[in-house]
Write a structure and sequence with these properties.
Rossmann fold, globular
């Protein structure tokens, strides 16, 4: 469980080597949920080129001018090195990432890190320092391919794929460095209300993979327009009732807040009533 940090800041890495899986949306909702439960939270964006989480935070900062009750994380960006030599670039990125992470951990209870949708050295570093890895995947076999190669006829697992190998390697790095374990959680994100057969098949394959690769499974968010609208406003589902937020609660919000409540419960963010607040209609 994510829970409260036992001895210093807990590092939560939202990662997946495929774009469009909802990483930044999940990262922001986790950060805000933790803030609303009274925790001190920092966010780090390692995908400076795309910068989705950074724009989310900027939008939220502007929203906070109209609605002062909106909590804000302390946000930082770690950019990729411009050095042409690979060894020099990795040395530079390691130094800048370590400095940013150490500074964030010194002042906060949680550090939520958003990573690029590709295999970069910065992403590897973040995964190796994670206490919790949250991997949202769209509920399709196309997206499942980043975790494992699956036989199209039998649905048998042929072998772990590139991202699962990355997580496994970083788990070993973490254990070697400080003998800590990493809790890996895979979210079934952007669930469709249709195609029940496909959803059942993915569920079956994920259950096998969870046993084989050592991750937990949690439900994420359905595909909803509301998330794109909230992004532009710098808001999360936990903010729609804030005075000055300028959002009228509708049935789509209610359904999405119920999903958020289930997600927070699965991640262990329930001790301070966050899940109860998320699920309130």
């Amino acid at each position: 469980m994510i829970g409260a940090p036992p001895d210093g800041a807990r590092v939560v890495v939202v990662g997946n080597e495929k774009g469009g899986s909802g990483k930044s949306t999940i990262a922001m909702h986790l950060a805000v949920a933790l803030l609303k439960s009274g925790k001190r939270v920092a966010t780090l964006d390692l995908d400076a080129r795309q910068g989705t989480l950074s724009r989310f935070v900027d939008n939220r900062r502007r929203a906070a001018e109209r609605a002062p009750g909106l909590p804000l994380p302390e946000h930082g960006i770690v950019e990729r090195s411009a050095a042409g030599d690979r060894d020099m670039a990795e040395m530079d990125e390691r130094a800048r990432f370590t400095a940013a992470l150490d500074a964030a951990r010194a002042r906060h209870d949680f550090v939520v890190i958003d990573t690029p949708g590709s295999d970069t050295f910065l992403s590897q570093l973040a995964h190796s320092h994670a206490d919790v890895i949250v991997t949202p995947i769209n509920d399709s076999f196309i997206d499942l391919d980043v975790i494992a190669l699956v036989d199209g006829e039998s649905l048998e697992i042929l072998r772990p794929s590139h991202y699962a190998v990355l997580v496994w390697e970083q788990k070993k790095q973490r254990a070697k460095r400080d003998r800590r374990a990493i809790d890996w959680i895979v979210l079934r994100n952007r669930l469709s209300h249709l195609d029940a057969r496909n959803k059942r098949q993915i569920g079956q394959v994920l259950a096998k993979l969870a046993r084989r690769l050592g991750f937990r499974i949690a439900g994420g968010f359905s595909e909803r327009v509301v998330f794109r609208e909230l992004f532009l406003k710098g808001l999360t589902l936990l903010d729609v009732r804030e005075p000055g937020a300028g959002v009228d609660l509708n049935m789509s919000h209610v359904a999405a807040r119920a999903e958020l409540a289930d997600l927070m419960a699965a991640l262990g963010l329930t001790e301070d009533g966050v899940a109860a607040e998320a699920g309130a209609s």
